[in-house]
């Protein structure tokens, strides 16, 4: 894993120690196994520490809290989804008309949300603004760009927020709607050309 620190114009890049990388992999494998076999309720820091064979302090230093651990578990799927809409095949990726890309993006995000709903619920509700981190900003920017290309007279930023709102994990969990119902509702929210 690489992390960077911006210092003026100089960017320092550090590499994760090999033992730290192994611990991270063990922790994430144990956490994923706990969620798969026992449900999201088993994602307690003490349970994950015991299952992975590391100390609870290591977990807190590495991930901060349960929400941080949930974010780490979501990370691989998130990277795949972002790669798909940034450079994958159309209609989700470049090459399709913007209106088709918007629809494909919203449908893909619906599938992604439902696939990891419990983890997203934990990650997105850790604090008042937890939902609005890096992934949300990437989604918002992407949608706003496509909205501007498709409907230049709309407030693209507001429209992007309006299209992302129904996919908040707590709302999806509260309503209990299935994928086809959510996708049909999102399609109806899209402006007519």
From TrEMBL:
GO molecular function, one term: transcription cis-regulatory region binding
Organism, as annotated: Actinophytocola xinjiangensis
Keyword ATP-binding in annotation: no
Protein name: TetR family transcriptional regulator
Keywords: DNA-binding
Keyword DNA-binding found: yes
Regions that span the bilayer: none
InterPro entries recorded: Homeodomain-like_sf, HTH-type_TetR-like_transc_reg, HTH_TetR
Domain HTH tetR-type: 21-81
Source organism superkingdom: Bacteria
Pfam families to which the protein is assigned, alphabetical: TetR_N (PF00440)
DNA-binding region (UniProt annotation): 44-63
